[in-house]
Amino acid sequence: MSALQGGEGVNTSRWTGARRWPVPGLGRSKISKWEIAGEHLAERYQQFFLVALGETLLVAGLTYSKGPYEAGHAWAFSLALATSILLWRIYVQRAGQLLAEAMMKARHPASVGRSAADTHLVMVVGLAATAIGYELIIEHPLDRISGAWLATVLGGPALFLAGRARFEYDVFGRVSRARWIAILVLVAAAVPLLHLPGLAATAVAALVLGAVAVADAHRAHGAPPEAAAPPS
Questions:
Q1: pTM for the whole thing?
Q2: Quick one: which of 10, 17, 198, 223 could link to 137 by a disulfide (CB 3.0–4.6 Å)?
Q3: For residue 158, what are the contacts with CB-CB under 8 A and spacing of at least 6?
Q4: Inter-residue contact 216 to 175 (CB < 8 Å)
Q5: For the packed helices 109-139 and 198-220, what is the interaxial angle rounded to 10 degrees?
Q6: Neighbours of 137 (CB within 10 A)
Q7: Which three-class secondary structure state does DSSP give residue 206?
């Protein structure tokens, strides 16, 4: 038994070291290490997100490539592409660019780093659900959507926005109202969308994300670039 436990410990250490990802329960890093590694960790988190985002595009492309190439399938594929672009835009504007700065400015960099790991994990789970929704809707764009499908199509973007809202708080110490309003709209839209084709649910998700992106652009227009201001 002790040998088995020892082997598990070695494997865990290898995986943790290979991925360079903070793992709760394996001990806490000293704050000084988080301060030094802030830029490095920020890049890793961003890469983690971008890989997951790329997977959503890959799923959409592979699903559409199977055909048939009819209007409904083409619209579903186009909406999937637009949604992924909007997810990327919302992520980078502007907290996604300033995580390293936020960690350097924070009184407790380790807290910001750990929270960023959690929020990126939530966002990536949202992306995974979104990718599943792409596959379902591209294959059956005009079929009436079931509750399970709808939870995937709308729940993926909603989960992403929830994680992005917390991430925004970690970087700026506040959350824009557009995030919470968008989540509420996605939840409220679920009931009427149960009676419509799946393509309509995908369109609603894309429109809601588009509204968030427009709100972000409007907030930043004409104002100096916002600096990181993590909560104390």
A1: 0.83
A2: 198
A3: 126, 182, 183, 186, 187
A4: no
A5: 140
A6: 32
A7: helix
Q: Where are the domains of the chain?
A: 46-220
Res 23 pLDDT > 70: no
Residues paired with residue 144 on neighbouring β-strands, in sequence order: 197
Residue range 166-200, pLDDT digits in tens: 999 999 999 999 999 999 999 999 999 999 999 99
Torsion angles phi and psi, residue 85, rounded to 5: -65, -40
Give the residue-averaged pLDDT of 140-153. 94
Phi and psi at residue 197, to the nearest 5°: -60, 155
Residue 231 contacts residue 180 (beta carbons within 8 Å): no
Q: How many residues does the chain have?
A: 232
The encoded tokens of residue 110 equal 């380790």
- Amino acid letter for position 174: R
Residues 46-84 have pLDDT tens digits of 999 999 999 999 999 999 999 899 999 999 999 999 999
Instruction: State residue 62's pLDDT score.
Output: 97
Contact (CB, 8 A) for 38 and 22: no
- Of 157, 153, 143, 177, give the one whose Cα is nearest residue 73: 143
Beta-bridge partners for 197: 144
Residue closest to 228 by CA, chosen among 87, 85, 49, 107: 107
